Every structure is written in C-alpha cells, then in structure tokens.
Amino acid sequence: MILLALATNGWTGDINWAQHRIELSGFSEEQRQVLDKTFGEFRTIRPGDLKIERTLYLRLSRFETLFGQPLSRADLLDWVLRRFRKISYGNSRLAAINQNRGELWVGDLFFDEITPLERLYLLIHEARHSDGDGYPHVRCPKGFQFVSAGQPEITLEGELACDRTDRGAYAYQAAFLFELFAYGIVDQKAAGLIYNSSVARIVP
Ligand SMILES: [Zn+2]
Fold first, then answer.
1. Which of 1, 87, 118, 195 is paired with 187 by a 20 to 30 Å CA distance?
2. Which run of H or of E encompasses 106?
3. From the CA of 76, how far away is ligand 1's center (Å)?
C-alpha cells in the first residue's frame, strides 16, 4: 500500500532486460513480474513540491552529491540497471546480496517479506556495491544502540552491517530515502523512519 501513489499513475510495462544486458536466472513468472514492477517504479519517481522546510532539505539532502544529478533530472532506473549484469534467484537469509560486483542474488525474503518501498531502497543499496571496491561494510561498533527493525533476530553489534564511509551503500540508501521523505513521494513517515535507521548505520 505504501506505493499506492506510484502504482496508480505509474508506468507498468516490462523491463527489457536483454537490452540492458542483464541476465535473469531462476525466477518464477510471478517473481519476474515483481522484479519488473519494482525496477519499473524507479521511472515513476518524480519530485513535486517539497513537503519539508527548504532549509532542512538543503542541509540534509545528499542526493545530488552522491548520484551526480538532482532527483528531478536523475534516471534512477538506468543508474540501478547499469550496476547489475546478472540477477539470480537464491535462497539466502538475506533479501538480496550483490556478491560479485554486479551479480545480484535475490531471495524469498525479497518477494515475500518486505514492502515495495523496502525493495526499492534495497536495490539502490545493492547497486552501490557494484562501484569501486564494492564499498564493503564494517562491523557495527561495540555498544551499537540500534536494532535491525526488519530482521529483529539479528544483533547488529559486531555484525558486518555498518559503513565507515559516507559514500557507501548505506549513504546511497539514505540519500534516496531522504528524497522520498522530503518530497512525500511515498508514505512520508515510513520513508523518514527508514531514512533515520539508514543514517544510524554510518558510524564515525
Ligand atoms: Zn550491503
């Protein structure tokens, strides 16, 4: 329901995976449709009016710095697609993992357990792992105060689930979520909460 606004005015066609030189492997027809719909939603993200104070937006927005374009001009679908060459179905405890710089493994969690909004920021996160040295995560520090709301069985302290860089996967995920929050493109409260929780993963 979170993406209702996108789903109703959005573009709903299929992604031409071959044209983007992306190999899909092991998915059922139903899962493939979820993938097409999820990637397709990147095309429908367009900012309207700011729904927060402009001074706050200017202070916290990092989208243009990281993605090289403001959200209004960014081709997010292309940005994500260019970073994957193969997407495979795999049963792992994670929703998705980018193992070999561009080879994305997507598991049952991605299709069955998470919201459309979570699928979107997850793809931004995984796509960033294709850049540079992959921006590998560091262990969350001792005494880390935050929990994994999405995976409550995990203890983040000591887990490879933090970044020490503000240009890594969590930074891109956060920058994307901040724009959704600022422009109220999806459920603003949900985007704001996940933004906060994403920023918490970037440790000094
Ligand atoms: Zn990651």
1. 87
2. strand 103-106
3. 19
State pTM to two decimals. 0.92
Report angle CA 108, 135, 16 to the nearest 5 degrees. Answer: 50
For residue 169, the CA-to-ligand 1 centroid distance in Å is 6
- pLDDT, one tens digit per residue, over 158-177 is 999 999 999 999 999 999 99
How many Å lie between the centroid of ligand 1 and the Cα of residue 161?
Answer: 7
Tell me how far apart the alpha carbons of residues 175 and 121 are, in angstroms, rounded to a whole number.
10
As residues whose CB is below 5 A from the ion ligand 1, the structure lists 169
Q: List all residues 6 or more positions away from 8 whose beta carbon is below 8 Å from its beta carbon.
A: none
The domains found in the chain, sorted by start residue, are 17-199 (3.40.390)
197 C-alpha to ligand 1 centroid (Å) = 14
CA of 137 to the centre of ligand 1 (A): 6
Q: Which amino acid is at 129?
A: H
